[in-house]
Design brief:
2 domains, D-Maltodextrin-Binding Protein, domain 2, alpha/beta, 10-stranded mixed sheet, 10 strands, disordered N terminus, about 325 residues
Length: about 325
């Protein structure tokens, strides 16, 4: 299944309804009893990427908070591999649906993976029970300072005067930064060239070296380089500015009101996990995300805690799927 066809056979309502069904409404006596005793042993959260990714220190804070709230050890296991975190996601799908193996997912495994892989080994909608969102952070349009521009408008003019000469980096084919770059390319009517990398770190390294000229990436990854003058931020792909960069306009302020995207993350369980366990985890995650430690950590890079129910998370996944499906279709991005 490709992201282009992820909605085939389902309307928008059917998609959300299908996701919500994975949460498993309707607690029975057995399910309630399981939730009361859960957890009785350590919980493992699979992070489907190498250590050191965007916002990982926040992930560690969440895990520490959950350990205290649940009264049981919670550990992170990095399990990279495959395009867009597919290997880690598959390992969770194959785990017992008992609440002891969970997935920490950014957009890639659920939204972007269908773009780059025809056979995922799982269904992004049917194979998971959404538990809770954790946080989001805005994407930023950033350039190498060697480009002689000071604004988005000047960048567009420069690109039109130099078609095919601006190369934009992404952490991989079909990832959110790639799709956001394609969205910008279409909106601005410019000819820029996508250069995919195997992750954010090498993409940013080549941006710093001038091998590529621009990229979309998150504040946690770019902020230190921008503040040191090694990179130049032209716009934040959000409706509000990043407090650490008060002079950097939002995309709407720069003339692109629909150029919006956030790096988000959330926790999911295998489909079939009892709703009582999902709800208990949701309450613990929401409590953790509202602590001072988490709020302070998120504030360092303009991140925002996302508090809500499993149903809220399911609906958000549905909305993101519809949005990026349309972008991929418009840009003719298919699975390799």
């Amino acid at each position: 299944m490709t992201i282009r066809t992820a909605l085939s056979g389902h309307g928008a309502r059917d998609l959300v309804r299908s996701i919500l069904a994975k949460v498993g409404f309707g607690l029975d006596a057995t399910s309630s009893a399981i939730a009361q005793s859960y957890p009785t042993r350590p919980i493992k959260i699979i992070l489907p990427f190498p250590s050191g990714g965007p916002g990982e220190f926040i992930i560690r804070l969440v895990v520490d908070g959950l350990s205290g709230t649940l009264g049981q050890t919670v550990i992170i296991e990095n399990r990279p591999g495959g395009a867009s975190g597919i290997v880690g996601a598959v390992s969770v799908v194959r785990a017992d649906p008992d609440g002891y193996t969970l997935l920490w997912s950014p957009p890639s495994p659920l939204i972007s993976a269908p773009v780059v892989c025809q056979d995922l080994g799982y269904d992004p909608v049917e194979s998971f029970a959404p538990v809770a969102m954790t946080f989001s952070a805005p994407q930023m349009l950033t350039i190498n300072p060697a480009i002689p521009v000071k604004s988005v408008q000047e960048l567009v003019a420069h690109a039109k005067a130099n078609p095919g000469k601006i190369r934009f980096a992404s952490p991989g084919h079909g990832t959110q930064p790639h799709l956001l770059g394609e969205m910008f390319k279409s909106m601005a009517g410019i000819d820029i060239v996508h250069v995919p990398y195997p992750g954010s770190a090498p993409a940013v390294a080549d941006l710093l070296a001038g091998q590529v000229q621009m990229c979309f990436e998150t504040a946690p990854i770019l902020l230190a380089h921008i503040q040191a003058g090694r990179l130049k931020a032209l716009a934040v792909a959000a409706k509000t500015r990043v407090p650490q960069l008060p002079a950097t306009p939002t995309a709407p302020q720069a003339g692109y009101p629909r150029l919006l995207a956030t790096y988000w993350s959330g926790i999911l369980a295998p489909a079939g996990t009892p709703a009582s366990i999902v709800n208990k985890l949701n309450a613990a995650i929401n409590e953790t995300m509202q602590t001072y430690e988490l709020q302070a950590g998120l504030a360092t890079f303009g991140g925002e805690a996302r508090i809500g129910s499993p149903q809220d998370f399911a609906a958000y996944i549905g909305a993101e799927t519809r949005k990026w499906t349309a972008v991929a279709k418009s840009a003719s991005i298919d699975a390799d």
